[in-house]
What we know:
InterPro entries: ArsA/GET3_ATPase-like, ATPase_ArsA/GET3, P-loop_NTPase
Family: Belongs to the arsA ATPase family.
Number of domains: 2
CATH topology of the largest domain: Rossmann fold
CATH superfamily of the largest domain: P-loop containing nucleotide triphosphate hydrolases
Strand order of the largest sheet: 3-4-2-5-1-6-7-8-9
Shape: globular
Helix content: 40-55%
Organism: Dictyobacter aurantiacus
Protein name: Arsenic transporter ATPase
GO molecular function: ATP binding; ATP hydrolysis activity
Amino acid sequence: MSLRQLSQSSLQFILFGGKGGVGKTTMAAATAVEMAREHKVLLFTTDPAPSLADSFGQKIGSEPTAVEQVPNLFAMEIDASKVLKEFKEEYGSEILDILQQGTYLADEEAEELFQMEIPGLDEVMSFKKIMDFMDNSEYDMYIVDTAPTGHTLRLLMLPDLLDNWIKFLGTLRWKYHTVVRHLAQKGNMEGADKFLVEMKKTVKKVHALLQDVERTEFVVVTIAEKMAVAETQDLIKSLHKMQVPSGHIIINNIFPQDESDFIRKRRGFQDQYIQSMKEMFPHHIITEVVLQATEVQGIAGLQTLGTQLFTETAEKEG
Protein backbone atom coordinates (compact mmCIF):
# COMPACT_ATOMS: atom_id res chain seq x y z
CA MET A 1 0.00 0.00 0.00
CA SER A 2 1.11 3.61 -0.44
CA LEU A 3 0.64 7.24 0.57
CA ARG A 4 -1.31 7.99 -2.60
CA GLN A 5 -4.43 8.86 -0.58
CA LEU A 6 -2.56 11.86 0.91
CA SER A 7 -2.28 13.46 -2.53
CA GLN A 8 -5.90 12.74 -3.42
CA SER A 9 -7.48 14.59 -0.52
CA SER A 10 -8.05 18.07 0.87
CA LEU A 11 -5.19 17.76 3.36
CA GLN A 12 -3.23 20.90 4.22
CA PHE A 13 -1.33 19.82 7.33
CA ILE A 14 0.70 16.58 7.41
CA LEU A 15 2.90 15.60 10.34
CA PHE A 16 5.50 12.82 10.37
CA GLY A 17 6.43 11.39 13.75
CA GLY A 18 7.71 8.39 15.63
CA LYS A 19 10.68 7.01 17.52
CA GLY A 20 14.06 8.69 17.03
CA GLY A 21 16.20 7.32 14.21
CA VAL A 22 13.47 5.62 12.18
CA GLY A 23 13.71 7.93 9.15
CA LYS A 24 11.03 10.57 9.83
CA THR A 25 13.02 13.35 8.18
CA THR A 26 13.68 11.33 5.03
CA MET A 27 10.01 10.34 4.69
CA ALA A 28 8.82 13.90 5.32
CA ALA A 29 11.31 15.32 2.81
CA ALA A 30 10.45 12.74 0.12
CA THR A 31 6.74 13.41 0.64
CA ALA A 32 7.32 17.17 0.40
CA VAL A 33 9.22 16.72 -2.88
CA GLU A 34 6.39 14.59 -4.28
CA MET A 35 3.65 16.99 -3.12
CA ALA A 36 5.51 19.95 -4.63
CA ARG A 37 4.74 18.56 -8.08
CA GLU A 38 1.23 20.02 -7.75
CA HIS A 39 1.26 22.21 -4.62
CA LYS A 40 3.26 25.02 -3.09
CA VAL A 41 4.70 23.30 -0.01
CA LEU A 42 6.39 24.51 3.18
CA LEU A 43 8.30 21.81 5.07
CA PHE A 44 9.15 22.46 8.73
CA THR A 45 11.23 20.57 11.23
CA THR A 46 10.67 20.96 14.97
CA ASP A 47 13.45 18.52 15.87
CA PRO A 48 16.08 20.06 18.21
CA ALA A 49 18.68 18.20 16.10
CA PRO A 50 17.40 18.99 12.58
CA SER A 51 18.73 17.14 9.53
CA LEU A 52 16.78 18.67 6.65
CA ALA A 53 19.98 20.29 5.40
CA ASP A 54 21.58 16.83 5.08
CA SER A 55 18.54 15.45 3.28
CA PHE A 56 18.44 18.22 0.68
CA GLY A 57 22.19 18.75 0.48
CA GLN A 58 21.89 22.51 1.05
CA LYS A 59 21.69 24.99 3.88
CA ILE A 60 18.22 25.37 5.40
CA GLY A 61 17.61 28.45 7.53
CA SER A 62 15.20 29.51 10.27
CA GLU A 63 13.05 31.24 7.64
CA PRO A 64 11.50 29.62 4.52
CA THR A 65 14.31 28.58 2.19
CA ALA A 66 13.70 27.65 -1.46
CA VAL A 67 14.78 24.06 -2.08
CA GLU A 68 17.08 23.96 -5.10
CA GLN A 69 15.89 21.97 -8.13
CA VAL A 70 12.36 21.62 -6.69
CA PRO A 71 10.00 24.44 -7.72
CA ASN A 72 7.21 25.14 -5.21
CA LEU A 73 9.11 23.60 -2.27
CA PHE A 74 10.38 25.61 0.69
CA ALA A 75 11.87 24.35 3.94
CA MET A 76 12.80 25.78 7.33
CA GLU A 77 14.32 24.58 10.59
CA ILE A 78 12.45 26.15 13.51
CA ASP A 79 14.77 27.47 16.21
CA ALA A 80 12.50 27.09 19.25
CA SER A 81 14.66 29.26 21.52
CA LYS A 82 14.63 32.06 18.93
CA VAL A 83 10.86 31.82 18.49
CA LEU A 84 10.37 31.91 22.27
CA LYS A 85 12.57 35.00 22.51
CA GLU A 86 10.55 36.71 19.77
CA PHE A 87 7.31 35.80 21.57
CA LYS A 88 8.54 37.33 24.83
CA GLU A 89 9.68 40.45 23.01
CA GLU A 90 6.29 40.83 21.31
CA TYR A 91 4.04 40.06 24.28
CA GLY A 92 6.35 40.53 27.25
CA SER A 93 4.87 43.84 28.44
CA GLU A 94 1.32 42.43 28.40
CA ILE A 95 2.30 39.29 30.34
CA LEU A 96 4.26 41.34 32.88
CA ASP A 97 1.24 43.62 33.33
CA ILE A 98 -0.91 40.60 34.15
CA LEU A 99 1.65 39.21 36.62
CA GLN A 100 2.25 42.56 38.30
CA GLN A 101 -1.37 43.71 38.48
CA GLY A 102 -2.92 40.37 39.35
CA THR A 103 -0.49 39.28 42.09
CA TYR A 104 1.30 40.68 45.10
CA LEU A 105 4.66 40.18 43.40
CA ALA A 106 7.11 43.05 43.28
CA ASP A 107 8.12 44.18 39.80
CA GLU A 108 11.47 42.41 39.98
CA GLU A 109 9.79 39.20 41.21
CA ALA A 110 7.30 39.28 38.34
CA GLU A 111 10.19 39.81 35.91
CA GLU A 112 12.04 36.83 37.41
CA LEU A 113 8.93 34.64 37.05
CA PHE A 114 8.48 35.76 33.45
CA GLN A 115 12.07 34.83 32.61
CA MET A 116 11.78 31.31 34.08
CA GLU A 117 12.08 28.35 31.71
CA ILE A 118 8.72 26.56 31.39
CA PRO A 119 9.05 22.88 30.33
CA GLY A 120 7.51 22.29 26.93
CA LEU A 121 7.17 25.97 26.04
CA ASP A 122 9.73 25.59 23.25
CA GLU A 123 7.44 23.06 21.53
CA VAL A 124 4.51 25.42 22.12
CA MET A 125 6.36 28.25 20.39
CA SER A 126 7.33 25.97 17.50
CA PHE A 127 3.69 25.17 16.87
CA LYS A 128 2.69 28.81 17.15
CA LYS A 129 5.28 29.66 14.50
CA ILE A 130 3.71 27.08 12.19
CA MET A 131 0.25 28.51 12.85
CA ASP A 132 1.50 32.01 12.02
CA PHE A 133 2.61 30.79 8.59
CA MET A 134 -0.67 28.98 8.02
CA ASP A 135 -2.61 32.14 8.86
CA ASN A 136 -0.80 33.94 6.03
CA SER A 137 -2.06 31.30 3.55
CA GLU A 138 1.05 31.70 1.40
CA TYR A 139 1.42 27.95 0.87
CA ASP A 140 -1.01 25.20 -0.16
CA MET A 141 0.39 22.50 2.10
CA TYR A 142 2.37 22.40 5.35
CA ILE A 143 4.43 19.32 6.23
CA VAL A 144 6.05 18.89 9.64
CA ASP A 145 9.03 16.67 10.46
CA THR A 146 8.49 16.33 14.18
CA ALA A 147 10.96 15.60 16.96
CA PRO A 148 11.09 12.12 18.59
CA THR A 149 7.85 10.88 20.17
CA GLY A 150 8.11 12.54 23.61
CA HIS A 151 8.68 16.00 22.12
CA THR A 152 5.95 15.41 19.55
CA LEU A 153 3.33 14.51 22.13
CA ARG A 154 4.13 17.73 24.01
CA LEU A 155 3.75 19.57 20.72
CA LEU A 156 0.33 18.00 20.13
CA MET A 157 -0.70 18.81 23.71
CA LEU A 158 -0.16 22.49 22.90
CA PRO A 159 -3.86 23.41 23.00
CA ASP A 160 -4.34 22.04 26.52
CA LEU A 161 -1.03 23.47 27.76
CA LEU A 162 -1.76 26.90 26.32
CA ASP A 163 -5.36 26.78 27.51
CA ASN A 164 -4.27 26.10 31.11
CA TRP A 165 -1.67 28.84 30.87
CA ILE A 166 -4.24 31.33 29.57
CA LYS A 167 -6.72 30.31 32.29
CA PHE A 168 -4.06 31.03 34.92
CA LEU A 169 -3.28 34.44 33.43
CA GLY A 170 -7.01 35.09 32.97
CA THR A 171 -7.66 34.41 36.65
CA LEU A 172 -4.98 36.93 37.61
CA ARG A 173 -6.51 39.41 35.17
CA TRP A 174 -10.01 38.89 36.58
CA LYS A 175 -8.77 39.69 40.08
CA TYR A 176 -7.21 42.90 38.80
CA HIS A 177 -10.38 44.00 36.99
CA THR A 178 -12.49 43.24 40.07
CA VAL A 179 -10.42 45.72 42.03
CA VAL A 180 -10.47 48.29 39.21
CA ARG A 181 -14.24 48.10 38.84
CA HIS A 182 -14.67 48.42 42.58
CA LEU A 183 -12.52 51.55 42.72
CA ALA A 184 -13.40 53.18 39.42
CA GLN A 185 -16.84 51.70 38.70
CA LYS A 186 -15.76 50.88 35.13
CA GLY A 187 -13.61 48.51 33.17
CA ASN A 188 -11.50 49.05 30.06
CA MET A 189 -10.10 46.64 27.47
CA GLU A 190 -6.35 47.05 27.86
CA GLY A 191 -3.41 45.57 25.96
CA ALA A 192 -3.16 42.63 28.36
CA ASP A 193 -6.85 41.83 27.86
CA LYS A 194 -6.48 41.90 24.07
CA PHE A 195 -3.46 39.61 24.37
CA LEU A 196 -5.49 37.01 26.31
CA VAL A 197 -8.36 37.20 23.81
CA GLU A 198 -5.99 36.67 20.87
CA MET A 199 -4.21 33.76 22.57
CA LYS A 200 -7.57 32.14 23.33
CA LYS A 201 -8.48 32.43 19.64
CA THR A 202 -5.15 30.81 18.73
CA VAL A 203 -5.82 27.86 21.05
CA LYS A 204 -9.27 27.36 19.57
CA LYS A 205 -7.83 27.48 16.04
CA VAL A 206 -5.11 24.91 16.87
CA HIS A 207 -7.66 22.59 18.47
CA ALA A 208 -9.81 22.77 15.35
CA LEU A 209 -6.88 22.14 12.99
CA LEU A 210 -5.42 19.17 14.87
CA GLN A 211 -8.78 17.40 15.00
CA ASP A 212 -9.90 18.20 11.45
CA VAL A 213 -9.94 14.95 9.46
CA GLU A 214 -10.34 16.88 6.21
CA ARG A 215 -7.20 19.01 6.68
CA THR A 216 -4.84 17.10 9.00
CA GLU A 217 -3.05 13.73 8.94
CA PHE A 218 -0.37 12.35 11.26
CA VAL A 219 1.83 9.78 9.48
CA VAL A 220 3.56 7.44 11.92
CA VAL A 221 7.05 6.27 10.89
CA THR A 222 8.49 3.18 12.55
CA ILE A 223 10.72 0.13 12.03
CA ALA A 224 10.09 -3.58 12.53
CA GLU A 225 11.67 -3.98 15.98
CA LYS A 226 10.15 -4.75 19.37
CA MET A 227 10.75 -1.38 21.08
CA ALA A 228 9.70 0.58 17.99
CA VAL A 229 6.45 -1.41 17.71
CA ALA A 230 5.65 -0.76 21.39
CA GLU A 231 6.34 2.96 21.00
CA THR A 232 4.24 3.06 17.84
CA GLN A 233 1.34 1.49 19.71
CA ASP A 234 1.62 4.07 22.50
CA LEU A 235 1.86 6.94 20.00
CA ILE A 236 -1.22 5.84 18.06
CA LYS A 237 -3.17 5.44 21.31
CA SER A 238 -2.19 8.98 22.29
CA LEU A 239 -3.17 10.35 18.87
CA HIS A 240 -6.55 8.62 19.15
CA LYS A 241 -7.08 10.03 22.64
CA MET A 242 -6.26 13.56 21.40
CA GLN A 243 -8.49 12.99 18.35
CA VAL A 244 -5.63 13.70 15.93
CA PRO A 245 -6.36 11.97 12.59
CA SER A 246 -3.84 9.22 11.85
CA GLY A 247 -4.49 6.55 9.26
CA HIS A 248 -1.02 5.92 7.79
CA ILE A 249 1.99 3.99 9.07
CA ILE A 250 5.34 3.74 7.26
CA ILE A 251 7.48 0.75 8.25
CA ASN A 252 11.00 1.71 7.23
CA ASN A 253 14.30 -0.15 6.83
CA ILE A 254 12.87 -3.56 5.96
CA PHE A 255 15.50 -6.03 4.76
CA PRO A 256 15.00 -7.03 1.11
CA GLN A 257 14.11 -10.56 0.08
CA ASP A 258 17.46 -12.33 -0.33
CA GLU A 259 18.88 -15.84 -0.51
CA SER A 260 21.71 -15.24 1.95
CA ASP A 261 21.21 -16.90 5.33
CA PHE A 262 21.83 -13.70 7.34
CA ILE A 263 19.40 -11.52 5.35
CA ARG A 264 16.76 -14.27 5.27
CA LYS A 265 16.88 -14.61 9.06
CA ARG A 266 16.77 -10.85 9.62
CA ARG A 267 13.84 -10.51 7.24
CA GLY A 268 12.01 -13.37 8.94
CA PHE A 269 12.53 -11.64 12.29
CA GLN A 270 11.11 -8.39 10.87
CA ASP A 271 8.16 -10.10 9.21
CA GLN A 272 6.86 -11.13 12.64
CA TYR A 273 6.67 -7.49 13.74
CA ILE A 274 5.25 -6.34 10.41
CA GLN A 275 2.45 -8.88 10.72
CA SER A 276 1.93 -7.87 14.34
CA MET A 277 1.44 -4.22 13.35
CA LYS A 278 -0.99 -5.19 10.59
CA GLU A 279 -3.06 -7.03 13.19
CA MET A 280 -2.79 -4.21 15.75
CA PHE A 281 -3.78 -1.50 13.27
CA PRO A 282 -6.20 -3.10 10.76
CA HIS A 283 -7.69 0.25 9.80
CA HIS A 284 -4.36 1.93 9.01
CA ILE A 285 -2.77 2.07 5.57
CA ILE A 286 0.68 0.50 6.04
CA THR A 287 3.48 1.33 3.62
CA GLU A 288 6.53 -0.93 3.71
CA VAL A 289 9.89 0.61 2.73
CA VAL A 290 12.87 -1.62 1.98
CA LEU A 291 16.31 -0.76 3.40
CA GLN A 292 18.69 0.71 0.83
CA ALA A 293 22.43 0.16 0.67
CA THR A 294 23.10 3.90 1.08
CA GLU A 295 21.38 6.83 2.78
CA VAL A 296 18.69 8.64 0.84
CA GLN A 297 20.18 12.11 0.41
CA GLY A 298 19.95 14.71 -2.31
CA ILE A 299 17.04 15.66 -4.56
CA ALA A 300 17.41 12.71 -6.96
CA GLY A 301 17.23 10.17 -4.14
CA LEU A 302 14.27 11.93 -2.51
CA GLN A 303 12.42 12.11 -5.82
CA THR A 304 12.91 8.38 -6.37
CA LEU A 305 11.72 7.55 -2.86
CA GLY A 306 8.80 9.98 -3.14
CA THR A 307 7.61 8.31 -6.33
CA GLN A 308 7.87 4.90 -4.67
CA LEU A 309 6.00 6.04 -1.55
CA PHE A 310 3.07 7.20 -3.66
CA THR A 311 2.99 4.20 -6.02
CA GLU A 312 0.89 1.12 -5.24
CA THR A 313 3.41 -1.74 -5.05
CA ALA A 314 3.93 -4.62 -2.68
CA GLU A 315 7.15 -3.16 -1.24
CA LYS A 316 9.00 0.12 -1.66
CA GLU A 317 12.74 0.46 -1.94
CA GLY A 318 13.86 3.34 0.29
